[in-house]
Specification:
449 residues, alpha/beta, Rossmann fold, 434 Repressor (Amino-terminal Domain), 3 domains, 20 helices, 8 strands, 56% helix
């Protein structure tokens, strides 16, 4: 997500490296490259022109503090402008009513049904009791798709298969939610085109009848500037409260996420960046600006980690480490939890500076799969007692079972034992303080502006 733009902006800002002052001459090349990067990322040309002009106005003649260099100063100005362009602050959903009603709308194929399920899962983690409503009476597979995605997360779906009256479906779902004590109703509606008068009339009727707390408009990032045009057309007919951008993990260059809010005058509330039900993020302009500029997003990463790791289990792991009892079953459990946090590629993008050391081509992408294959090829006894894996015959058997070379098995075992030693030292010297200091150093180094 935003990798293309991040790489382009990094090159544009690199031009100023080594300079001591900001002049019209040395900033001209950098601004030109920043403009190209944004246009290539499918940002509206007029927006780019205004964006670059603002940076120029704020930078020329700006006194550079002794603690900063021109590159850092321009990075700070670009960051501020990006945050402003993307809406400045996060706008939370209004869920004040009981039940709160959220109406989902958008074009055909924009990812409304998938998003509806993701939103229900997201709210469930926030201790809400969501009910999904299958109100798409035009697409035959819509109800089945909603049920298929949601049953994995144990989220109920209300539908009336025999009914072709969408208002009846909505009314019945509200009664059902009250009966089952569901405090959030998410209505998944049919996809429509802005030029389709019949379908647009239907969504207006649903909106007027259900009186939702929130109307969310879903757009596909892959459609680029067309997504913005569609949102503008919809906003004239349906006064939606927020925007959801889906498929940001695809070939999209991210321009739509940068410019959508400023053009449509509506806040972006969520972004979807994967196929899993947990692949949904609240949109924070400041955090996204950090990622675009390669400064990571530690806050979002910590939030995701907290969702998966419980304190009691972590304490048990610490105790095992201190007594040299951390084994391969524990490692496997931790890997499974890390994978649940979300797309590994997105997780890496949240850690400032670390992306430089990772390549997602070739075998790097499957690094966790290799570790899992090695552990699954061990006997239960070997998993519980790692120290016995000095025997060559055992290692050969694991190599044959996992399809991993013997040299890689040796490397993995060495890394596991080295990791155990480091983790034991961290535990002995107050792990929380060391981790906190480490993160602080990263932030101070990468975000020194």
């Amino acid at each position: 997500m935003f990798e293309y733009l991040q790489n382009k902006l990094s090159k544009a800002l690199h031009i100023l490296k080594g300079e001591n002052t900001i002049t019209e001459i040395n900033i001209a090349s950098s601004l030109k490259e920043i403009g190209r990067a944004l246009v290539d990322a499918d940002v509206n040309y007029k927006i780019v022109k205004s964006f670059v002009h603002k940076i120029q106005e704020k930078s020329i003649g700006k006194k550079v503090l002794t603690s900063l260099n021109p590159k850092q100063l321009i990075t700070k100005i670009v960051y501020d402008e990006l945050v402003s362009l993307m809406g400045k602050t996060n706008i939370e959903m209004n869920l004040s009513k009981n039940p709160a009603i959220i109406l989902i709308c958008g074009l055909q194929g924009s990812g409304k049904t998938s998003f509806s399920s993701k939103l229900a899962f997201f709210l469930k983690k926030k201790n809400k009791y969501p009910l999904l409503v299958a109100a798409d009476i035009h697409r035959p597979a819509a109800i089945n798709q909603l049920k298929l995605i949601s049953e994995k997360a144990n989220i109920p779906v209300f539908s009336l298969i025999e009914s072709k009256n969408v208002i009846e479906i909505v009314d019945q779902s509200i009664l059902y939610a009250s009966k089952k004590k569901r405090n959030v109703i998410i209505i998944d509606t049919a996809g429509r085109l802005a030029i389709d008068e019949i379908m647009m009339k239907e969504i207006k009727t649903i909106n007027q009848h259900s009186k939702p707390n929130e109307v969310l408009f879903v757009v596909d990032a892959m459609t680029g500037q067309d997504a913005i045009n569609t949102a503008q057309s919809f906003s004239k007919i349906l006064n939606f409260d927020g925007i959801v951008i889906t498929k940001l993990d695809g070939d999209s260059r991210g321009g739509v996420a940068i410019t959508m809010s400023s053009i449509v005058k509506k806040p972006i509330k969520f972004i979807s960046n994967g196929e899993k039900i947990e692949d949904l993020e609240v949109f924070h302009p400041d955090r996204i600006a950090n990622r675009i500029l390669g400064m990571g997003d530690i806050v979002s990463l910590v939030e995701k980690v907290q969702e998966q790791f419980d304190e009691k289990r972590t304490q048990k792991i610490y105790q095992k480490i201190s007594k040299n009892r951390f084994n391969f079953n524990d490692l496997l459990e931790q890997i499974q939890k890390i994978k649940k946090i979300g797309n590994i590629k997105n997780i890496i993008s949240m850690i400032p500076g670390i992306d430089k050391y990772f390549s997602f081509y070739g075998n790097q992408k499957d690094s966790f799969k290799k570790i899992e294959a090695i552990i699954h090829s061990m006997t239960p006894y070997e998993r519980n007692y790692p120290k016995i894996l000095t025997n060559v015959k055992r290692k050969k058997r694991i190599s044959e079972g996992s399809g991993i070379t013997l040299s890689h098995i040796d490397l993995f075992l060495k890394q596991f034992h080295d990791m155990n030693k480091i983790m034991k030292k961290i535990h002995a010297h107050s792990g929380k303080k060391i981790v906190k200091d480490f993160i602080s150093k990263i932030i101070n180094k990468e975000n020194s502006v």
